[in-house]
Amino acid sequence: MRTHQIAGLTCVLAFLISLPATILADTTGLPDNSIYHLDSEWRDQEGQALTLSELAGRPRLLSFVYTYCEHTCPMIVARLEMVTDTIPEPVRNQLQVTLVSLDPERDTPERLKTWLQEKGLDGRDWLMLHGDPDEVLGFAAMLGVRYRPMGERDIAHSNMITLLDAQGVVRYQSKGLGDDPAEINDAIESLEVPTD
Amino acid sequence: MALAAALAIPAPASGVEPPDGMVRVGAGAYTPLFTDAGAAAAISVRAFNLDRYPVTNAEFAVFTRAEPRWSPESIKPVFADAAYLEQWRSHDPSDPDDIGHQPVTNVSWFAARAYCKAQGKRLPSLDEWEHAASASEDSPNGTDNAAFRSRILEWYSKPAITRLPDVEDTWRNHWGAYGMHGVVWELVDDFNTALVSGESRGDAALENKLYCGAGAAAAVDPSDYAAFMRYAMRSSYEAKSTLRSLGFRCAADVEPMEKESP
């Protein structure tokens, strides 16, 4: 945990979180169809608190996974690596892969960080999100992601990859791994990304 | 734990009477339509409190006045589709002689969730709702009662009711909950656990199959058709979907809040 290093920010966030939910997140300026209107609180792999609206500003490739998943999640991750490796560099510098854990009990922020290191993904500027089960359900429902615990350890879930533009508007969703990966690339190319 | 703390605000101690407007649904087990391979057929459900009636238009109108971002004028399209509360355009939601005491419908899952949260409650889980709804008038489990099942099937076979009844004018089940069947479909919190498959793109095709009576009869015991219909309904709607025949009621935990300090 690095919370001691960000104590000031944490205090500010704690104050904000204590306010009524209706004014928790600053969503002014976001289009009405931005998913960032959903008030919810998360922690990243560094343990830092953030709200969904703070994700605005960069386009994102977003997927719901869990790190103990041995079935399709590695394929989703591989797909995300492949896509980000094949897009033009100016876009790649803007786009942030964002993975939301469906298993908040086991996927603590620390675990999410360790997992990135274990998979050799820690140099890739990926964002991992940990939220409580209620927040995960709301976010998943917002994007049409369905999931259900299967037995003690597994979670069946949609293999969906969502492309969000910088304002949190859904620009593309691949429904499954059978979709043509080129569709994601085409959708990314259609984004208007500033090239500095 | 954060969830439990957020939801259990007015929860009474175990054994204490449920709060006003709620009934206690006793612990039990229900058998879901589909079970995972290797999983037990029956699912245990703990005792919980459930609203006696579906939430009414009048109650929901109080909520939207208190939290205007959920009003038809202000709601963002990511939280509800264009038909959100459309009955309010031509009716007074607060008038008990109009639609005030009718179940509120054309609400989305997001809005229903926000409403329950504002009451210190939550939406019932799918398992909880199904367990409560399996009660007949005089038994916690009416699934073996042919007459009860036949009445439910009769409702499912009818077209949507054009004028909904007031919530008090519906039938009362064993737990004291009114109108669990025969009035409106009801939202559950974890609706998106329905129809998990490797690829969710199959959902639309499955929905079509599920809505086809012949398909249902081939897949399961036709007497489970009502459960199949509910399953199909949950797998077909999105969190922002609204339907003329879709309402909700809230639930709450029975357990008292865990004390943070000794």
Helix content of chain A: 25-40%
The CATH class of chain B, by name, is Alpha Beta
Q: What average pLDDT do the residues of chain B reach?
A: 81
Largest sheet of chain A: 5 strands, mixed
* Widest sheet: strand ordering of chain B: 1-4-7
- Which overall shape of chain A is indicated by the principal axes computed on the Cα atoms? globular
Backbone shape of chain B: globular
The low-pLDDT segments of chain B are 1-13, 196-220, 257-262
Q: Kindly name the structural category of chain A.
A: alpha/beta
Provide the CATH top-level class of chain A.
Alpha Beta
Give the helix level of chain B as a range of percent.
25-40%
Radius of gyration of chain A: 16 Å
In summary, what is this structure?
The complex is a heterodimer of chains A (196) and B (262). Chain A has 196 residues and is of the alpha/beta class. Chain A is 31% helix and 19% strand.
Write up this protein.
The complex is a heterodimer of chains A (196) and B (262). Chain A has a single domain (3-189), classed as Glutaredoxin. Chain A is built from 6 helices and 9 strands. With 196 residues, chain A is an alpha/beta fold. The relative contact order of chain A is 0.18. In chain A, a hairpin with a 5-residue loop joins strand 1 (41-43) and strand 2 (49-51). In chain A, strands 5-4-3-8-9 form a 5-stranded mixed beta sheet. A two-stranded antiparallel sheet of chain A has the order 1-2. A two-stranded antiparallel sheet of chain A has the order 6-7. Chain B is α+β, with helices and mostly antiparallel strands and 262 residues long. Chain B has one domain (2-253): Alpha-Beta Complex (paralog of FGE (formylglycine-generating enzyme)), CATH 3.90.1580. In chain B, the strands form 3 sheets. A 3-stranded antiparallel beta sheet of chain B has the order 1-4-7, with no helix packed on it. The longest helix of chain B has 12 residues, at 146-157. The radius of gyration of chain B is 18 Å and the shape is globular. Residues 1-13, 196-220 and 257-262 of chain B have low confidence and may be disordered. The A-B interface holds A 22, 32-35, 37-38, 72, 132-134, 137-138, 140-142, 144-148, 150-151, 156-160, 175-178 and B 2-3, 6, 36, 38-39, 67, 69, 76-79, 109-110, 113, 189-201, 235, 238-239.
